[in-house]
């Protein structure tokens, strides 16, 4: 009579070992990318921050808040400033991106175990999605910390929604509060969650909890409003048409499975979109018919809407850059919360079959793609490293600033005309000359 419970406990213990062991292995592999392929040389938008990181520019509250290409991300800016000034090494910022994604992954593992009452081997889905090698090329640029942090906050928020009760939790509201100050990505992702919290706060039991939630909601709305005041924006996008916007939107969603999403286009993207639309319609039905599950169902529906809205914004803003505009490597990180929302919805609201078989199929698919994503990530990382090592070698060999701008300008910076001052700072300050 006791064999059943003992077998259940042994199975749960084995699943925990497998899942957390897989998490640790994938995390260690991800952490190895920065020291293996990262180069202590600025790349792309990082050149803009060289005066503060390696020169004499004094940071301030205005420096941290001022818009950059439509993005505000004060906390990541301060984090990168402090770590770079202390260590003189941009690779520390690269490691921070991996760490925040790992923290969100751990939050998901704990949350689904609490929802289900045990750990399942299928929960390997989360490290396979968030910590595979295909994530890493975009994380070899330290300034992309704000993208990784926005993604991690959205994932953590959805995990907290899934494991929450009939009212929102303070921790979920706190994640939402932080989203708008982690770039325009976080701002877009926050929108549907703000609407969800504004509706759900009415169900909060007890004056203290309701009061705290209302304060956090009010602060979030205030940050959204402040975000747009005196925001410096680039030229408005010039999309080619509805079909191009739709194509770019779908490409973005397809990159959520990793760099291999490029090779799976369009079938991978259509598969992700079908999962998202089907799960959204199913969650809406649950919210309409099950009052006891309405808060969680609408919260996860807000997660799907948030990532879908981000995909549409990117589709509208980037479709003008050609037919591969939605297949950029940085979108691997930004698109993966869509599959997180689907997985959490199935575990939280699915019946015995869907809650078991659906997550298992998603985990198996990512496991099959893991070697391909890893190989693609290593190839991209090697190419990135080779470019920056060539720049560093020429700089140390005494190449003039003009020669460096001519050889590398368009490949390492969005505005090559701004490179001379930054290169001179690296020569004279705490930059390349002392490494």
Can you walk through the features of this model?
This protein is mostly helical and 435 residues long. It has one domain (38-390). It contains 21 helices and no strands. The protein has helices at 3-31, 33-37, 50-53, 61-65, 74-87, 91-116, 125-130, 136-139, 145-163, 170-178, 183-200, 207-228, 242-254, 261-264, 267-289, 294-318, 331-335, 337-349, 352-396, 401-412, 419-428. The N and C termini lie far apart (67 Å). The mean pLDDT is 90.
Summarize the structure.
With 435 residues, this protein is an all-alpha fold. The chain contains 21 helices and no strands.
Question: Mind describing the biggest β-sheet?
Answer: none
Structural class: mainly alpha
Helical residues, percent:
over 70%
Number of helices: 21
Mean pLDDT: 90
List low-pLDDT spans: none
Strand content: under 5%
- Oligomer designation: single chain
Show the helix and strand layout:
Blueprint: H1 3-31, H2 33-37, H3 50-53, H4 61-65, H5 74-87, H6 91-116, H7 125-130, H8 136-139, H9 145-163, H10 170-178, H11 183-200, H12 207-228, H13 242-254, H14 261-264, H15 267-289, H16 294-318, H17 331-335, H18 337-349, H19 352-396, H20 401-412, H21 419-428
Helix pairs in contact: 1-6, 6-9, 9-10, 9-11, 9-16, 9-18, 10-11, 10-12, 11-12, 11-16, 13-15, 13-16, 15-16, 15-18, 16-18, 18-19, 19-20, 20-21
Which descriptors would you attach to this protein?
435 residues
